[in-house]
Amino acid sequence: MRSPMFRRVVLKISGEALAGTKGYGIDPGVLDTLARQVKSARELGVDVAIVVGAGNIWRGRVGQEMGMDRATADYMGMLATVINALALQDVIEKYGVDTRVLSAIEMRQVAELFIRRRAIRHLEKGRVVIFAGGTGNPYFSTDTTAALRAAEIEAEVILMGKTGTDGVYDSDPRKNPDARKYREITYLEVLNQGLQVMDSTAISLCMDNGIPIVVFDMLGPDNIVRVVLGEDVGQTYIR
Ligand code: UDP
């Protein structure tokens, strides 16, 4: 059996990725691709925790631009992550993998409340844990949630699954044909150069806790599993 490079991972899935080419809502094809790969990662014995975003439904910034109170708009974003988490849970369980949705905001009928020790226990039992509700606090992002949860559950890495890009570039490759991709970059270089990989709070948290980040194209064939195995899919390592 091929041996994975990581024992426990946090997979960050942005809302945008779930929308696929539609740009809004949830693309069943994307869900299916993700679920199949999560199952394969589990079969390698890797503990998989997922942090899901909500950009496909709502972002706090949009509400703010409409004149809404920032905190209210952010709570709407956190609630939207729960919708995405339930969609992921449904499809992953169709593949026969046990999952638990743990929400940072209490929502008894639909999800368990996030309790760190409970999350770890689920992982130890081989369940895929899906973290919903972000950090439970406005003014944060789901990238920061990924950094926070990774530290809390002692994950070895954050797998930043991207769509539309396959790593970290020195400029936007869609605008600059000469953009250069980094294969390795430090947290500080990302911060100092203002590279749009994760927000600065999330990067800082990873830096302070020594959690490496792998940025890769999540929808490439078997890429999640290949990254877990340490294969080269053109990913960038931030560490
Ligand atoms: N959000 C928040 N606190 C958190 C996580 C998320 O307030 O801890 C809100 C914030 O408004 C954000 C929205 O939820 O815009 C959706 O999350 P995010 O933008 O990170 O989703 P992604 O870009 O990954 O799809």
TrEMBL record:
Question: Can you quote a single GO CC term?
Answer: cytoplasm
CDD domains, alphabetically?
Answer: AAK_UMPK-PyrH-Ec
| EC numbers | 2.7.4.22
Q: Which residues bind ATP?
A: 12-15, 55, 59, 169, 172
Record keywords: Allosteric enzyme, ATP-binding, Cytoplasm, Kinase, Nucleotide-binding, Pyrimidine biosynthesis, Transferase
- Region annotation (Involved in allosteric activation by GTP) maps to 20-25
Residue intervals of the Aspartate/glutamate/uridylate kinase domain: 8-217
Q: Where in the cell is it found?
A: Cytoplasm
Name a GO molecular-function annotation. Answer: UMP kinase activity
Tell me where on the tree of life, at the top rank, the source sits: Bacteria
Q: Which InterPro entries does UniProt cross-reference here?
A: AceGlu_kinase-like_sf, Asp/Glu/Uridylate_kinase, Uridylate_kinase, Uridylate_kinase_bac
Extract the Pfam families matched here: AA_kinase
- List, alphabetically, the SUPFAM superfamilies matched: Carbamate kinase-like
* Pathway where this protein functions: Pyrimidine metabolism; CTP biosynthesis via de novo pathway; UDP from UMP (UMPK route): step 1/1
Instruction: Cite a single GO BP annotation.
Output: UDP biosynthetic process
Swiss-Prot/TrEMBL catalytic activity = UMP + ATP = UDP + ADP
Q: What's known about how it's activated or inhibited?
A: Allosterically activated by GTP. Inhibited by UTP.
Primary site of residence: cytoplasm
Residues that coordinate or bind UMP: 74, 135-142
Instruction: List the signal peptide residues.
Output: none
The UniProt similarity line reads: Belongs to the UMP kinase family.
Quaternary structure note: Homohexamer.
Function description: Catalyzes the reversible phosphorylation of UMP to UDP.
Q: Which HAMAP family match?
A: PyrH_B
Stored NCBIfam families: pyrH_bact (TIGR02075)
Annotated protein name in UniProt? Uridylate kinase
